[in-house]
């Protein structure tokens, strides 16, 4: 059931609203900084190897361990969970992206509660911590959890790009397949890394996400 649970977690049908966010991609395309498939591919590669996404993916095993300990009755684990969740949220410069992380996290936690997997008590967690909670509830192993998080992010970026670029669904799937080896390699690297000791070179992404709030016309919420 673990593989099927992971498929459900990365499904675009998951009711968390991921389709409504571009995480700055819309701003980059409107400004002309990203215009075609080759530039999109380079952008996705750069984010997978240098972006803020890496810190979140690296934090997933720690978040899962905290959630497991909290469920076992360890109060200190809850404090550590909330602290790491807040730190991850603070690494996001743009208010739109922080709102995205909160909204998607809350939506996933509500879904988990409806499916019989509530947290020990109701608290607000952002998207990475909620993803860890879902992986724990659905018995998704750590390697697959980290891979799935990276895969889902790429899939959502490609979904946004299909609506913003002259990029059809077929070419988007080709890009997703081409990035699978990099996703797998990064997942292996990140699952053994301390997120607080990693760095992010995603200055361009941060600026694009901040700029998005100033767009006159837009399709996406971030």
Characteristics:
222 residues, mainly alpha, Urease accessory protein UreF, 0% strand
Can you give a write-up of this model?
This protein has helices at residues 2-10, 25-31, 37-50, 53-71, 75-90, 95-114, 127-137, 142-164, 169-190, 203-212. The chain is an all-alpha fold and 222 residues long. It has one domain (2-212): Urease accessory protein UreF (Orthogonal Bundle), CATH 1.10.4190.10. It starts with a helix and ends in a 10-residue tail after the last helix. The model has no long low-confidence stretch (mean pLDDT 95).
Concise account of the structure shown:
The protein is mainly α and 222 residues long.
Major sheet size, sense and barrel closure: none
Q: In terms of per-residue confidence, which ranges show pLDDT below 50 for 5 or more consecutive residues?
A: none
Radius of gyration computed on alpha carbons: 17 Å
Task: Give the CATH architecture.
Answer: Orthogonal Bundle
Shape category = globular
Helicity range of the residues? 55-70%
- Summed over residues and divided by their number, the pLDDT gives a mean of 95
Distance between the termini: 34 Å
Separate helix tally: 10
β-sheet strand percentage:
under 5%
Which secondary-structure class do the elements indicate? mainly alpha
Estimate nothing, just give the exact number of structural domains: 1
The CATH superfamily is identified as Urease accessory protein UreF
Order of helices and strands: HHHHHHHHHH
């Amino acid at each position: 059931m673990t593989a099927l649970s992971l498929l459900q977690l990365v499904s675009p049908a998951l009711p968390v609203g991921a389709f409504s966010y571009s995480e700055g991609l819309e701003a980059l395309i409107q400004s002309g900084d990203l215009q075609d498939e080759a530039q999109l591919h380079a952008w996705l590669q750069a984010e997978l190897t240098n972006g803020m996404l890496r810190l979140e993916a690296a934090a997933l095993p720690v978040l899962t361990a905290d959630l497991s300990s909290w469920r076992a009755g360890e109060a200190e684990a809850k404090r550590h969970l909330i602290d790491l969740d807040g730190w991850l949220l603070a690494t996001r410069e743009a208010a739109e992206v922080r709102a995205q992380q909160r909204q998607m996290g809350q939506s996933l936690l509500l879904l988990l509660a409806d499916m019989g997997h509530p947290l020990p008590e109701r608290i607000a967690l952002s998207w990475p911590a909620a993803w860890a909670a879902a992986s724990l509830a659905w018995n998704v192993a750590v390697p697959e959890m980290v891979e799935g998080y990276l895969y889902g992010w790429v899939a959502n970026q490609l979904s946004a790009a299909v609506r913003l670029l002259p990029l059809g669904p077929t070419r988007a799937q080709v890009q997703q397949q081409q990035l699978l080896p990099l996703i797998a390699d990064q997942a292996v690297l990140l699952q053994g890394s301390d997120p607080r000791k990693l760095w992010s070179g995603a200055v361009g992404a941060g600026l694009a996400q901040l700029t998005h709030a100033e767009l006159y016309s837009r399709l996406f919420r971030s």
